[in-house]
Structure formats: structure tokens, C-alpha cells
Amino acid sequence: MTAAKTLPSWDVLTKHGVFPEANHDEVARLNFLTHLNVHLSASILPGVKTAFDTQVKPEFEKEHGREPESRHEVRNAMLKHPYFQTWSALRRNTMEMRQQAGRAQVLRQIENLVEKVDGYNQGAESLILDDSVQIPNNVGSVDIHCQPGCYYTEYFENDVTVAASYDLGLFVTTAGLLGTLSDGGGKAVGNWLQDNHPEFMPKRILDIGCTIGHNAVPLAQAFPDAEVIAVDVARPSLRYAHARAKSMGVNNITFIQANAETLSQFEDQSFDLITTAMFWHETSHSVMPNILKTINRLLKTDGLTLHLEQPQYHGMGVYEQFIRDWDTYFNNEPYWGPMHELDLKQSLNDAGFNGDDMFETGVVSSVDEKIFGKREAGDAGEDYGRAPVWNAFGLWKR
Amino acid sequence: MKMADINKLDLAGTKAKGQRPYFMNDKQTEQVMSITMALAMELSVTRERVSTLECLLEEKGILTREEVENYSPDKEEVARRSASTQEYLARILRILQQDKEQIDGSDPSVEDIQDILTKS
Ligand SMILES: C[S@@+](CC[C@H](N)C(=O)[O-])C[C@H]1O[C@@H](n2cnc3c(N)ncnc32)[C@H](O)[C@@H]1O
Questions:
Q1: pLDDT tens track for A226-254
Q2: What residues contact B72, with CB distance under 8 A and at least 6 apart?
Q3: Per the CB < 8 Å rule, is A89 touching B15?
Q4: Domain definitions of chain B by residue range
Q5: How far is residue A388's CA from residue A381's CA, in Å, rounded to a whole number?
Q6: What's this model's pTM, rounded to 2 decimal places?
Q7: Average pLDDT over chain B, rounded to whole?
Q8: Residue A204 and residue A186: Cα distance in Å, rounded?
Q9: Cα–Cα–Cα angle for B51, B57, B60, nearest 5°?
């Protein structure tokens, strides 16, 4: 038997100026949930695959005289299998427990948090909220990933509950892979640019759907002389994002409440770099084309647009598609599936880009030593295997 | 709404908007699982707290972990623990005790009793 691999404790996270405090039992709860998530995916989920291979698939073939051809066929068959039922029930329940734990922790100190956030935001010109912005139906139809109140609900004036709970909980589903500031994706984009395009020095950067700025902040840090604009529709998230960035000494981001489908306040060709992170799967068949058109309008010639997003389903086996699709049906991510079967080249063409310019790549963030410890002395080369890799697509506008 | 008016307990546990899928054939079974997992978490939290106490007691030189591991309760403590464990089990498994007590179906139904009570 191999010794259990130690998972990092939630407590290693960097306590920026508006990060919620945690008492002894709250840390223990978040650590339990982190371990439970890892257990469900490392120890239980393989049984789901075995159930498919040895029972569900053969039975399907017997009944239909062919293999299942789509993730939907796999899902409908698997939904009847008790092991998949139990794994799914546990997974769904773990998501809900994480939400409750995070919200309870935030709410017990919400007075204090709101005061701290206000302290950073008071009179700042770099936070622009706009009451007239409506919540679009891709954000408002369901509470995305079972997060009660989604990104935008305010329970009282100046509330940041949903944002603070989102911040403290990302660790629980990723077991520290995002780093001590949950900003690994943005850092990876910075690394990728430095390694592959060291001459590219964007002066104006736009981050769309920034939520609490996890991935806008590392970009602003990578390009300290750039002006970064981060937009979102969700007020509590923007409020928290702005205070978070300020508390970290990051002053070159302006957070703006706006629907990215139009952004008429910005001139054509006014940005060198336009990014999103884990964004498109939460849009819709109308919002995504609108925003892609906006990006095309706002991006300078020779500018770059780059998007961190899970890989498309094309070319994947139906079982893998079905597992990746779990969130679509069971974790309130209704657009996840439809988005991942789009032909992105076509989407970019439709937005006026030349789709053939599109590239796909993996961007890599470094292993956070504060979480995972130093590399063993004498280890050669890169941290392959340990370093998280994010799938990305993008294009240079010609 | 004012900050002072929110019910924190309700709000912490509130439902996410969107239909909640149930996976098991029986919704109540899944709810029991959900309750059990919450208890499992609280137990884990409690164990961690005990472990913290042991660490602190050891650090302060009040006792060592070996003393905890090798602690051998005296007769009275053995009796107290046994009683407490039995009570604990009885609490947790109450539903099975009660089901057993009427497993022959000897309990009259409400209708049976109403018959008795409404007979003039
Ligand atoms: C999954 S989150 C993105 C996470 C974030 N980029 C990060 O790096 O952590 C999606 C965000 O997009 C925002 N959003 C969705 N549709 C939008 C729209 N039409 N305009 C602006 N923001 C939008 C949501 O409010 C939400 O905060």
C-alpha cells in the first residue's frame, strides 16, 4: 500500500486584504470537502468507468446492435446504473455542502468584510458600477454551478457575500492547483506570452467576465505599465474584485459593470489584448456571437485575443464527453455542453475574424511552492506532471 | 433589505436556483445520504479539533500522544464509556428499535382508533 499523498490545507491560501477569515472548524470543513472531492474523482469515479465498460456499454450494444454514439446516449443509459447514481448524488451533494460552508463562513463576518471592501473602494475612480446594467439570461436563468445567488445577487446594500464565498471555495474543487491566490490561469497566460511573444507589450488590455479578478490581476502584474479594463455584469463580484486588487497593491485595473455584448463606451480598435478565462461556457448562443463581434470591433490589428476554456468535445470519445458534460446537466452549467460542441473557427469567422488564424495551445503556470513545496534538489527540467496546464484558444488579428 | 435583516442561517443553506436533480431511485434515500455526508463532515471536523487539542496539550508539556494512545481507563471510566456508547447507539438507531417494536403490525391504525373514538 502506498502512503496517502498529503493534500494542501486550505489555510495556505494568501490572505489578501478582503479575504474572509476562517476559524479552526471552518478550515477543517473546507479541508474535508477538498479531500472528499479528490476521493470522489480519484477513488470513486474510476468505478463509474468500469460500470460503463463492463455493464452499461455491453447492455446498450445488445439492445441497439451498436455502440452508443453520443454523450446523451451514454448519459441516459448511465443514469440507470446504481454506481453512477451514487457517485453523482455524492458529487452534487458535495457541491452543495461547499456552498453552504462558504456562505456560512462569509455571512458570520459579513459586516466586517463589507466595511473592509468599502474602505478600499470609497471614492475610487477605478470602480465604475452602473445601475442600469441588466442581468442577461445566460447569467440569471439558473444559479451557475449551484452557487446560490450566482455572481450577482445582493442581499443588502453593498453586499459582497456571493463574491467572497466564490473566492474562498475555488480551492475546494481544485485542491490548490490554482495557486495561493487562485490565479494560476492568469499567471499561465502571462508565462505563455513571455515565453512565446516576449516582444508583445500590450498597452491596453480588456478582460471580459472578470468575476472577482482572479485572472485579470496577474495580467495587470505581468504588464504593470498597461491599462487593464475588467468588465462584468455582477456588482458584488466587481466590488470585491476591486477591493481585492487594491489590497494587493494592483492599481492599473479599472473594474467596470457592463454587458460585454456591446461595450459602446470603448472605441473601435482600442485594445491590444482581449482575454477571457473560463467564460464562454457560461454564455449562450446569442451572447457568445455578440461578444465575439465586440472583441473583433475593439481589438487592434496585430492585437491578440486569448481565451482559457476547457477543450472542445470534437474528437473525444463519447464516454469522456459524457463525464465532462456532467456539469451541464447536474451542476447548473446549462451552456457547458452546447458551447463545447461549437466549431470555434466558424464562430470566429461569423464574428468577422479569419477563423483560420485561430490557434489552440496549452498554457502552463508554475507550481506554487507555497502550496506544494520546493522541487527536490537535483530535479532536472520542468515540473512536468505537477504543473497545471490550461487549454486555450486565440488568434492574432490580421 | 438591510444587512441587519438577513437571516444568516437560512441564507447560508439556501437552494441554488434551478431544478435539483435526484439520482437515486428513491428521493428519500438520497436525502438520507445527504444528511449522512453532512454528519460525516462534522465528525471529521470534530476529530480535527481533538487532534488540535492533543497537539497543544503536548506542546505545552501537559501530556504526550503516547499517554493518549496508552491511556487505560479505570473500572468506573470503562463503565461510563460503555453506558455512553450504548446510549449513543440507541440514539442513532432509534428508528430501527421503533420499527422492531411494531414489526408484527400490532399497532392499530388511526382509522381503527377513530372507529373506537367516534363510536357513540
Ligand atoms: C465563470 S465566470 C469567469 C471567471 C473569471 N474570468 C475568472 O478568471 O475567475 C463568468 C463571469 O462572466 C460574467 N458574465 C456573463 N455574461 C456576461 C456578459 N454578457 N457581460 C459581462 N459579463 C458577463 C458573469 O457575471 C461571471 O462573473
A1: 999 999 999 999 999 999 999 999 999 99
A2: none
A3: no
A4: 24-107
A5: 15
A6: 0.92
A7: 90
A8: 16
A9: 140
CATH 3.40.50.1980 is right for the domain spanning A1-398: no
pLDDT tens across A266-306, in order? 999 999 999 999 999 999 999 999 999 999 999 999 999 99
Q: Is A215 in the pocket of ligand 1 (CB under 6 A)?
A: yes
Question: What's the gap in Å between the CA of A164 and the closest CA on chain B?
Answer: 13
Q: Which of A132, A146, A151, A264 most suits a substitution to test ligand 1, by most atoms within 8 Å of the C-beta?
A: A151
The predicted-structure confidence for B44-66, as pLDDT tens digits, reads as follows 999 999 999 999 999 999 999 99
Domain ranges of chain A: 1-398
Question: CA of A162 to nearest chain B CA: how many angstroms apart?
Answer: 10
C-beta of A214 in contact with ligand 1 (< 6 A): yes
Per this entry, what is the length of chain B? 120
In A307-326, the residues whose Cβ lies within 8 Å of chain B are: none
Closest of A29, A27, A145 to residue A95, by C-alpha: A145
Q: Does the CB atom of residue A209 touch ligand 1 within 6 A? A: yes
Closest by Cβ to A332, choosing from B2, B18, B44 = B18
